[in-house]
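Researcher: Re-running this chain for the archive, since the previous output was lost when a drive failed. Same request as before.
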Amino acid sequence: QKASPLTPYLVAGLGIVAKNIGEMDVTTAEEMFTIAKESQTSVGAGIGIGVEILMGKRTYFVVEGRFNALLTDEATVYFPLKLGIVIR
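Model: Regenerated structure tokens:
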């Protein structure tokens, strides 16, 4: 039986995340100021979908999108996109 050229998948995770933001100097037309350094460890969760696209006998192109959130007092949310090659 021949393999399908497209293989969709779901991904989810839960873990401990370290959030580190370095000190930043900001300059606007009106003023200059510094944003203080911040470091925090919290619980993070994510869910996403992806697809592997068959390119060759053992080679796949991978596209994956996720929704990730750090569960803190001020929620941090980000949406990473992963592109890559898998050789099996």
